[in-house]
Amino acid sequence: MTAVTADTAGTTGVSGVSDAAVAAEQAAYETVFDAAVAAEERIEPRDWMPEAYRASLVRQIAQHAHSEIIGMQPEANWITRAPSLRRKAILMAKVQDEAGHGLYLYSAAETLGTSRDELLDKLHSGRQKYSSIFNYPTLTWADVGAIGWLVDGAAITNQVPICRCSYGPYARAMVRVCKEESFHQRQGFEALLALSQGTEAQHAMAQDAVDRWWWPSLMMFGPPDDESTHTAQAMAWKIKRHTNDELRQRFVDIAVPQAEALGLTLPDPDLRWNEERGHYDFGAIDWTEFWDVLKGNGPCNDQRLSKRRQAHEDGAWVREAAAAHAKKHQHTGKHGEAQA
Ligand code: FAQ
């Protein structure tokens, strides 16, 4: 079964064709689309797709892209104060990787008929979201380790299944993103391990960071399944492969033994192995805090957005110069520097 391409899609919008004929044609396309999804085929940009599928993907991919570029801020806060040249070089590379992830994701969203300008405008005006996690502050160097271990760890748990997303460009972008996130997660673990095994004060700093980042990391997976508006449809379309609660549980199960290896405690007195379920039980998440952060009331929401808007304004001359350069060379097809 091969999806119908936009080129082969026929009568829609042609004058003289009855509404019934258009409806029948739409139904036929929908049948082909559903069969392609059921057969685990990839939907590509030129294929016909339901408008709701397109809109849902733009929403999720845009939110994901915004998270990557806003997510550069909390860690960039520590580049100038990294404790050694080695840590500084690693952190700079990581923050640059996040910018790259944003670019792959904006490009994937553009294949759905939107533009990066439009998406950035929606981010800056608060009409599109970014991940709740990036509205928390990085108070000490240990927060950089905690973000790598927990936030990148949660991101990988969520994103590895997206490598099998039904939409081709999003799935392919995730393959490289996950490889890089995996490296980020390990550098965070290693940075925390060094602190945990260091002086008493360093150990306390690592523990304090884990205490502050643990619960917000669990919230990254989204609301509980019975409050998740998009999960059922996204799973039917094979955009999502698991529910929010399934992935959250998977993350807890992975994190608990890692915390033990680090010699750090997770701040949850209800955390214990449940032999019957074959999973760790964990305590109640404060969903009031989550929804409050989404409404813009987290500790850093205002700071993150105003810094992003400022960075966009400051970069206007770069966009103008790039556009002028492209225009100058559009007839010659030459983009390189003149050679002596
Ligand atoms: N934050 O119906 P659901 C990273 C919203 S990348 C804010 O369950 P869905 C890398 C949701 O949009 C982190 N909003 O939604 C990195 C919806 O509102 P809407 C980002 C949230 O889409 C590391 C409403 O709640 N990763 O960390 C959040 O089925 C270090 C109802 O929710 C991705 O975006 C939240 N946490 O499931 C970078 C992965 N959760 O849109 C720098 C791809 C939910 O109707 C440094 N995205 N909402 O207004 C996904 O997998 C999904 O979109 C979920 C949410 C799981 C995030």
Q: Which ligands does the model contain, each kind named once?
A: Phenylacetyl coenzyme A
Q: Poorly predicted ranges (pLDDT <50, ≥5 residues)? A: none
The major β-sheet equals:
2 strands, antiparallel
**Mean pLDDT, all residues:** 94
Question: Proportion of β residues?
Answer: under 5%
Task: Look at the helices and sheets and give the structural class.
Answer: mainly alpha
Summed up, the helix count is: 13
State the separation between the terminal residues, measured CA to CA.
Answer: 55 Å
Shape: globular
Instruction: Count the beta strands.
Output: 2
Molecular structure report:
The protein is built from 13 helices and 2 strands, in the order ααααααααααββααα. It is mainly α and 340 residues long. A two-stranded antiparallel sheet has the order 1-2. Helix 2 runs antiparallel to helix 4, helix 6 (142-159) runs parallel beside helix 8 and helix 6 packs antiparallel against helix 10 (244-262). The protein is globular and about 80 Å long. Bound molecules: Phenylacetyl coenzyme A (FAQ). Phenylacetyl coenzyme A (FAQ) binds at residues 59-60, 63-64, 67-68, 71, 98, 129, 131-132, 147, 151-152, 155, 158-159, 219-223, 228-231, 234, 244, 294.
